[in-house]
Here is the input.
Amino acid sequence: MKTLKVQGRYLFWNNGEPFFYLGDTAWELFHALNREETELYFAERKRQGFTAVQAVALAELEGLTTSNAYGRVPLCMTDGLPDPVRPDTEGEYSYWEHVDFAVETAAKHGMFVVMLPTWGDKFNLCWGKGPVIFNEENAYTYGQWIANRYKDCWNIIWMLGGDRKLEAPHRKIIDAMAAGIRSVDTVHLITFHPPGAQDSTDFLADAEYIDFHTAQTSHATDRCYQIEEVMQKMAKASEKPYLDSEPRYEDHPACFDASVGYFWDAADVRQNAYWSVLAGACGHTYGNHAIWSMTKNVSDYFPYTWKEALTHEGAEQMKWVKELRLRREYASLCPSPELVVERFPGMGRMAAARGTDYAYVYSPLGESFTVDLTGFAGAKCIKASWYNPRTGEETVFGILQAGSYSLVVPPTGGKGQDWVLVLEAIKA
Here is the structure.
């Protein structure tokens, strides 16, 4: 079976080819969409270059008590509560048959389903509607059941958690669910989706079952401009790969407040992507406010339907960060902030990474900057190009002197005029 494996800080296919995790948050996918809509969603995301879709089996928005598009709920009732050891699989168009269809549709398009067995309010009701239904015993049984159902599907990654902290009793539940999964599925990777402004190393740095870590830098400003530090924190806490599984969403009200009058846009989500990847992430997750929720009725807080948002600018441009990352030798790339002399604050923060005989420097606002070229051993000169994150075009603009410092000026500047400087060593 075609499988993913961890190699150093990155993910690879079992044949040695690199895999770039380009995810989308479609949390309500199984719960909200019918089959025709599911087909449309995956076809568009495949066209846009996505490789993974994060979706929740027991969904956030009253996923236990309100039915899916076919009038079905995921669990049978026991003593007045949905029972995780009694999944409702009876009859045509059962809830789980519809989940099967989504997994099969993703596979047809060559995409992973990053499946959350449950949203976090089902084991930790610090907010949300729950109800809480999990304990250690039934979490193990449910993990075993859901893993057994999908263990033979090549395109599954397990994502535990669901936007909630793990205090001591919750950690035991997640450990039990992971053990249930691993009792029947030793092949598919496992990760964890943390609450906002935290990452999985805050709770599971010592968990052997975690294959790669994720952060949620979220939708306010307390983490979105500090992504380098967030990625460095995960790197210091664990030797495993890491990425941002929930950054600022396109079309999300900034700081969760629609009255501010600013919704995060394509330029904002591009910043998150390039900051993360050049800080050593094994991939990146995009999100759109209307897509995670599969919004069908617009409001001040959700200004678009999911179908309108499906082709918004940020989603169309995410593939270019993947294409840039796959364009050159993969495994050697590592963060190299020392390449840039200047240190611009906030939105203007530069990011840089170096691989074997090449380097990338991201200028989020098209600011001029000085690049340090003293670290290219054996180069007689450096070929310099500009990569456009909006179009994927790469254009050579000059030859720079190796072993020196050089001021570079991006083609355009200002918000939304971000550029990646591409440096390639020309050997003597």
